[in-house]
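Thread: "does anyone have the structure for this chain?"

Original post by V.I.:
We have the sequence but no experimental structure in hand. Need at least a predicted one for the grant figures.
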Amino acid sequence: MGVTAIAQDSWKVCLDRKVLLNTSTEDAEKNVVKISSAHLKKAKTFSVNYIDGSPQKGWERTIMMFNEQDKELGKQTGKKFTLKASGLKTLLDKYRTIKLYTINSPTDPKMKAQVRLRRVHLCTLVLQ
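Reply from O.Q.:
Generated one for you, tokens below.
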């Protein structure tokens, strides 16, 4: 008897090579990453790497950054979101809390208009 494994989406939040969060569960309460200004000064790059468990052909992933008032601060298309640590520090100094979400949407505009997109919470960054 064979065991069928369902490939699950997962994501990693990193500061340079240090993994701050590695999960496959959407949980706004648990997926909180506290970052200190000192760490941001030392680091060069902040990144979120999204791994699609079962990628869909004709769909594209977008990772977005919002403040607590749900104002979009930035977005990047693809499975990787990168930002200079100094840029993230500037945003965190201003907003204190930043939320990262992802959506997966069809590349076909006609199909995109018919599909209801759901934002998936990846993590919340909090300046310590």
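V.I.: this helps a lot. The radius of gyration is 16 Å.
O.Q.: and The chain has a mean pLDDT of 93.
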